[in-house]
Design brief:
- The chain has a single domain, classed as Ribonuclease Z/Hydroxyacylglutathione hydrolase-like (Metallo-beta-lactamase, Chain A), CATH 3.60.15.
- The chain has 6 helices and 15 strands.
- The N and C termini lie close together (about 5 Å).
- It has about 230 residues and is of the alpha/beta class.
- The mean pLDDT is about 95.
- The chain is globular.
Length: about 230
């Protein structure tokens, strides 16, 4: 299984000739190495409804009728746009052909703000526990620090955790480092930083804060094997 990072919160998992994209914010993402016209995922997983996470889901999903997995509100919203969706919610898990998805809580918002100044509420934000071939990836989505991260780590031993460090909208580096300690993940990758001025951070400084020295800074396009 190959796991790659593509700027902001975009993560790609390639396994058994299937491609899974998490939070595919590509157009408008100055840090990504991906191009929408070159991507055709089989599955798309979404943490919440903000535009920098739903991103290019509609265009990408229509290429191969990709299955979009998200909370109930997002899944329904996207199904009305003709997408193939699977609705879930916090605490629930489901088996798919590639592995298991379980949604966790996250403390953030979840809505689309339209050009005509309307706010469309899209349910609770989530984190994602993705278990494939006995390995578990935790994508925290956008969230602040919360103590139940300790419970998540105890209940689901995590091989690789993607944690936001940008501050302002999510955890900053100090809180994210404490989150890593609670989760006890084997490896931790910082995400959701440097895309916009309010979330400017040095990921290497975050890695230095980790007590277990288990951090990995991934540049857009970098990948690891699990």
């Amino acid at each position: 299984m190959k796991v790659s990072y593509h700027g902001h919160s975009v993560v790609k998992v390639s396994v058994n000739e299937k491609v899974i994209l998490i939070d595919p914010f590509i157009n408008g993402n100055s840090l990504t190495d991906l191009k929408v016209e070159e991507e055709a995922p089989d599955f798309i997983l979404l943490t919440h409804g903000h535009g920098d996470h739903i991103g290019d889901t509609v265009e990408l999903a229509k290429k191969k009728n990709a299955l979009v997995i998200a909370n109930n509100e997002i899944a329904n919203y996207l199904s009305w746009q003709g997408l193939n969706t699977h609705a879930m919610h916090i605490g629930g898990k489901c088996d798919f052909e590639f592995g298991t998805v379980k949604l966790t809580q996250a403390f953030h918002g979840s809505a689309i703000i339209t050009e005509d100044q309307q706010i469309i509420y899209l349910g609770m934000p989530t984190g994602i526990l993705l278990t494939i071939e006995g390995r578990t990836i935790y994508h925290a989505g956008d969230t602040g620090l919360f103590s139940d991260m300790k419970l998540i780590g105890e209940r689901h031993p995590i091989d690789l955790a993607f944690l936001p460090i940008g501050d302002n909208f999510t955890m900053g580096p100090e809180d994210a480092a404490y989150a890593a300690e609670l989760l006890q993940a084997k490896q931790v990758v910082p995400i959701h930083y440097n895309t916009f001025p309010p979330i400017k951070q040095d990921p290497h400084e975050f890695v230095e804060l980790l007590k277990d020295k288990n951090g990995l800074v991934m540049n857009p396009g970098d990948s690891i094997e699990l």
